[in-house]
Amino acid sequence: MRSGQNWRRPGGEEDEPTAEEALDVLEVAISDTATENPVTAIAPVSSIIDQSQSVVLVPVDADGEPIHGWFTRGEYGNQVGFDDFFAFADEFDTSTAEADFDPVFDISGADGDPDGRIDFDDFFVFADDFGKVVANADVIIAALQ
User: What are 94-123's pLDDT values in tens digits?
Assistant: First the structure.
């Protein structure tokens, strides 16, 4: 805002512009190319670089091997247990063709990639890790909160 201008809000307070007045002053300042203006003196953006990162926290056992089937993520402890089994059983025999398909439970397939079905292949992967303790459970639980 330019110095020397007295603004009045609808409530009567001085030096407070209304939103419309502030927008008008901002538009004038941005479009003013005749005087040195810090807003218009900024060079245009030549490129945008996305430096965001995605971190995937994979549950692992004490040896660092991935654990499949820890679906409850610490809600009932740091071990693949019966609560995880019941969560898996609720999703068993579903596929991507169904609206309620949850890909979290699709833990098998060629080379460990999901195959779009929750079936016996997924069950056997789950069964292999049943009872295992998740060594990095504290880190995962803290990240989810």
Answer: 888 888 888 889 888 545 667 888 999 899
